[in-house]
Every structure is written in C-alpha cells, then in structure tokens.
C-alpha cells in the first residue's frame, strides 16, 4: 500500500515569514494530493489540493507543488498569520479515488 | 449545508464498557469513512462504505469493533468492549464516490479509563 511521510513534525515561524511542509509518497499510482488543516478540537479541513497532471497550484497565501518524478509534494504558506497555527496533514489518493493515506502531521506555530 | 455531523463529541467510559458513535454525512455523499486518529498522528482508515456496502474494512478490529450504515445514509461505529488503547478521536468523513474530495466531521473523542 501507499506510505506517506511528512516533515517536519513541528514548525515555528515568526508572523509574516513563510512556512514549508514536505511530504513524500511511495506509490507512483497516486494521483491526488490534498492538504488538510486541523485546528484544536475540530476535524481536518481541506485547504488546497493538487492532481498529478499539475505541477503547482496557488490559492492566495497557500501554494502546493508536486514533483511526480521524485514523488514528493510540498505546502507553502507565505506571509504567515497567527490564525495559520494548526496541525497540517498531507495525504495521497490513488486511481480509485476513494482511498486516502495521510501523513503524520505538522504542528505549525506562528509567533506574533 | 450542515456538513458531516458526529455525536457524541466527547465520551468517557470505563474499560470493558460498550460505546457507540454516530455519523450523518453530507446529503448526497454516498461514500462514508470512519477514521481513527491517535494523538499526534494522522487519520487511519477503519472502514469505508459505498452506499450501504462496506467495501474496505481490512483495518477494522473485528473482534471488538463493528459498524453499520443502514439505508446508505447515517452510520454507527461501535466498540464492545472498549480497551484503554481505544482512547482516540474517531473521525467520520464523506465524499461523492470517485470525487476524491473528503469532508470530515468534528470527530468523537473517546477516553477509556
């Protein structure tokens, strides 16, 4: 099955700086890579996703890049704000579209 | 739209007691998932339903866990008897079949004493 690794496990940045979270996956058949944000006491919420036919996708301060050859994808948050503080999970999904494999999460703290 | 609704949000029980969690998915979402989330970890799939059929329950500990999705809408996850190691958050999620996009509920946090 698919194996998704995520780094770092914790990340602290100053407000206004950028944050980068990286994930690798093992199954070349995976073709959909979502990122979820989980705030304390809440379920994960989809913030951005990318499919394997695209190398980069951006939504305001959030961007995701995908390198299919190296089997890794990254989340980039620019101009971080305190409300970005949360746990972020990457995931990979295969051709069938209904199996998701999650990374172990990155706890992001934005210091005001 | 109400989103994925789960209850109870919190449950504290003593070991060996039974517990049940309920999930109401987004209207029209025929795929329903139950995930286990241990502290500091990502969600791990317990069971996936397509309508009322359990199509992937390979990770469900069937000696003590059971689930059902009667009529292909709401779902219930049961643990009997609960063990100390079952303390975790149980997340329900739903999607339109083949659409990739998951929507999670807020989760049910179980503490087993």
Annotation keywords:
heterodimer, A: 112 residues, mainly beta, 6-stranded mixed beta sheet, globular, B: 113 residues
Walk me through what this model shows.
The complex is a heterodimer of chains A (112) and B (113). Chain A is mostly beta strands. Helix content of chain A is 0%, strand content 56%. Chain A has no helices and 11 strands. In chain A, strands 2, 4, 5, 9, 10 and 11 form a 6-stranded mixed sheet that branches. Chain B has 113 residues and is an all-beta fold. In chain B, strand 5 and strand 6 form a beta hairpin. Classes of the chains: A mainly beta (112), B mainly beta (113). Chain A binds chain B through residues 4, 6, 32, 34, 36, 41-46, 49, 89, 91, 93, 96-100, 102-105, and chain B through 4, 6, 31, 33, 40-45, 48, 50, 55-56, 91, 93, 95, 97-107.
Q: Which SSEs are present, and which pair or pack?
A:
The complex is a heterodimer of chains A (about 110) and B (about 110).
Chain A: E1 4-7, E2 10-14, E3 19-25, E4 32-38, E5 45-51, E6 56-59, E7 62-67, E8 72-77, E9 86-93, E10 100-102, E11 106-111
Parallel strand pairs in A: 2-11
Antiparallel strand pairs in A: 1-3, 3-8, 4-5, 4-9, 6-7, 7-8, 9-10, 9-11
Chain B: E1 5-7, E2 10-13, E3 19-24, E4 31-37, E5 44-50, E6 53-56, E7 65-68, E8 75-79, E9 88-95, E10 103-104, E11 108-112
Parallel strand pairs in B: 2-11
Antiparallel strand pairs in B: 1-3, 3-8, 4-5, 4-9, 5-6, 7-8, 9-10, 9-11
Which class of secondary structure composition applies to the elements of chain B?
mainly beta
- The total count of helices of chain A amounts to 0
Query: How many strand units of chain B?
Result: 11
Radius of gyration of chain A: 13 Å
Relative strand content of chain A: over 45%
Helix content of chain A: under 10%
**What are the segments of chain B in which pLDDT stays under 50 over at least 5 consecutive residues?**
none
Q: For the report, how would you describe the main beta sheet of chain B?
A: 7 strands, mixed
> Would you report the number of β strands of chain A?
11
Secondary-structure-derived class of chain A? mainly beta
């Amino acid at each position: 099955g698919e194996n998704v690794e995520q780094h770092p496990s914790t990340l602290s940045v100053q407000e206004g700086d950028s944050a980068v979270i990286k994930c690798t996956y093992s199954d070349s058949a995976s073709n959909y890579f979502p990122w979820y944000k989980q705030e304390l006491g809440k379920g994960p919420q989809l913030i951005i996703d990318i499919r394997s036919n695209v190398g980069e996708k951006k939504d305001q301060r959030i961007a995701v890049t995908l390198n299919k050859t190296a089997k890794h994808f990254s989340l980039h948050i620019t101009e971080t704000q305190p409300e970005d503080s949360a746990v972020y999970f990457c995931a990979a999904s295969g051709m069938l579209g209904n199996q998701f494999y999650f990374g172990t999460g990155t706890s992001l703290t934005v210091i005001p | 739209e109400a989103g994925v609704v789960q209850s109870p949000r919190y449950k504290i029980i003593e070991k060996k007691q039974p517990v049940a969690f309920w999930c109401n998915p987004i209207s029209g979402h025929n795929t329903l998932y139950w995930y286990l989330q241990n502290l500091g970890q990502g969600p791990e799939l317990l069971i996936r339903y397509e309508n009322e059929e359990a199509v992937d329950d390979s990770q469900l500990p069937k000696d003590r866990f059971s689930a059902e999705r009667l009529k292909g809408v709401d779902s219930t996850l049961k643990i009997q008897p609960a063990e100390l190691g079952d303390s975790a958050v149980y997340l329900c999620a739903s999607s339109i079949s083949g659409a990739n996009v998951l929507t999670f509920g807020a989760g049910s946090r179980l503490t087993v004493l």
